[in-house]
Amino acid sequence: MVQKQDSGDLIRVRNLKTYFPIRTGLFGRVIGYIKAVDGVSFSIPAGKTLGLVGESGCGKTTVGRTILRLTRATAGRFYFDGQDVFTCSGSQMRRFRPDMQLIFQDPYGSLNPRMTIANIVGESLTTHGRASVRQRHERVNMLLEMVGLSPDHANRYPHEFSGGQRQRIGIARALALEPRFIVCDEPVSALDVSIQSQIVNLLQDLQDKMGLTYLFIAHDLAVIEHICDMVAVMYLGRIVEYSRRDQLYTHPRHPYTQALMSAIPQPDPWRRSKRIILGGEVPSPSNPPAGCPFHPRCPHAEKRCCQEEQELIQKSGPSEHLVACWKAESL
To answer: Is the pLDDT of residue 165 over 70?
Structure first.
């Protein structure tokens, strides 16, 4: 089931599929496909944050890169403020690019070591003809102050900064063109725990001040709980549960989500729940199982789960809680 369209939705993704061909032989004959993203749909209202969570390799980052057209989509639609981005020509995309930006996961590899911070942050302003030399200098200084850095840092190089500071530089670069939508691709996973909260709080402050809309990709459920309004749980290229944050964390319905929730560390020993240990390995996206993709590891699987694929539909409860599980009512 596709989430209902709302006039306040800035982002709408419909049945997105991204397959990568598997080639062999001298002539690169295609013998199969890796189904990295296999029919994903979601919406994000303007000014809100959707968390996309799941194990490594489930397709989270591919979703983000595909909707920004950094990776070619195999099928599906992506609407930005009502405009189908996948049908845009090159010149049309150039007009959309400033509104859609990306914060990378790796603060060490995403910054050019041969460029000064001023050039890294201000490069897009020059590329899109948004500022004169003087205006660019003023804009870069303002952006550095917005992310908690000093304008005196503008003439330094990336190797002179810590991981947290480099990620702040990456955020400043993403904000340079005053975007409306930002894909945050695990922006804190490479940082120390003490720094993670600072970056998350910074992103929230910037969202409040600038009205930003985020797709926040992460595997850390504690971070997702802190920053997101809605959460989509991915497994093997598909969304298996979609809900408001509070509802998901208090009443997870899908067995995979329940297993993820049981792994969250709890400092209070009285609140600790029993760990759910999943058996087996994640199936290969080049040969996903029939029926429910989670059934080979699901402790509640039955014959129907192995044969029929359950769509993401609303079960009893809140209208915005969607689950792809036949047995969600009884779990």
So the answer is: yes
DSSP string, 164-215: HHHHHHHHHHHHTT--SEEEEESTTTTS-HHHHHHHHHHHHHHHHHHT-EEE
Residues 176 and 190: beta-carbon distance below 8 Å: no
DSSP 37-53: EEEEEEEEETT-EEEEE
Residue owning tokens 């922006």: 187
* pLDDT of 104 above 70: yes
Which residues contact residue 144 at a Cβ distance below 8 angstroms, ignoring those fewer than 6 apart?
117, 121, 150, 151, 153, 154, 169, 172
- With tokens 């199982």, the residue in question is 289
User: Does the pLDDT at position 242 exceed 60?
Assistant: yes
Number of neighbours of residue 230 by Cβ within 10 angstroms: 21
pLDDT, position 1: 38
d(C-alpha 247, C-alpha 263), whole Å: 18
Tell me: the pLDDT tens digits for 203-213? 999 999 999 99
> How confident is the model over 123-142, as pLDDT tens digits?
999 988 888 888 999 999 99
Enter the tokens of residue 181.
């939508």
Q: What is the distance in angstroms between the CA of the first residue and the CA of the last residue of the chain?
A: 21
Continuous segment of H or E residues that includes residue 80:
strand 75-80
pLDDT at position 331 is 66
* Cα(249)–Cα(230) distance, integer angstroms: 11
β pairing state of 313-314 and 238-244: unpaired
Q: pTM higher than 0.85 for the full model?
A: yes
What are the distances in angstroms from CA 79 to CA 52, 60, 232? 18, 18, 18
Residue 118 gets which letter from DSSP?
A: H
Contact 65, 101 (CB under 8 A): no
Residues 230, 82, 123, 148, CA torsion sign:
negative
269 has pLDDT over 80: no
Give the pairing of strands 322-323 and 313-314: antiparallel
Q: For residues 190 and 163, is the Cβ–Cβ distance under 8 A?
A: yes
- Check: CB of residue 84 under 8 Å from CB of residue 77: yes
